[in-house]
């Protein structure tokens, strides 16, 4: 059985790498690599065996990661407006997840 620490580990491992990769002006290949990392993180989150309390609100985090992946894929294609929209959605969902698990 996994715990909230496992959720944090997945998020830290995958999203910190993505942040480092995309902080400077990234190339399209960088966006593609970052999208792949996020996709792997989504899969790992989905496969975690969590109890009911730890699973609470996880769908919001998974949705945030999905939006981030879509944003990165749009960035890889050079579609900046779509990238910006989905990044904003991902940030809002991640903030909502953090707010809910902290309360």
SSE layout and pairing:
Layout: H1 4-22, H2 28-47, H3 52-55, H4 58-76, H5 80-102
Q: How is this structure best summarized?
A:
Helix 1 (4-22) packs antiparallel against helix 2, helix 2 (28-47) packs antiparallel against helix 4 (58-76) and helix 4 packs antiparallel against helix 5 (80-102). The chain starts with a helix and ends with a helix. With 103 residues, the protein is mostly helical.
Please describe what this structure looks like:
The chain is an all-alpha fold and 103 residues long. 83% of the residues lie in helices and 0% in strands. The chain has helices at residues 4-22, 28-47, 52-55, 58-76, 80-102. The radius of gyration is 14 Å and the shape is globular. The model has no long low-confidence stretch (mean pLDDT 91).
Keywords:
103 residues; mainly alpha; 5 helices; globular
Strand-residue proportion: under 5%
Number of helices: 5
What is the subunit arrangement here? single chain
The main sheet comes to: none
């Amino acid at each position: 059985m996994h715990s909230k620490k496992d959720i944090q580990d997945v998020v830290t491992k995958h999203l910190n790498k993505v942040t480092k990769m995309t902080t400077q002006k990234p190339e399209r290949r960088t966006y593609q690599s970052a999208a792949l990392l996020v996709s792997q993180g989504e899969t790992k989150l989905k496969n975690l065996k969590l109890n009911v309390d730890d699973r609470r609100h996880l769908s919001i985090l998974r949705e945030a990661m999905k939006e981030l992946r879509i944003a990165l894929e749009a960035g890889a294609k050079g579609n900046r407006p779509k990238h910006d929209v989905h990044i904003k959605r991902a940030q809002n969902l991640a903030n909502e997840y953090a707010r809910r698990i902290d309360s």
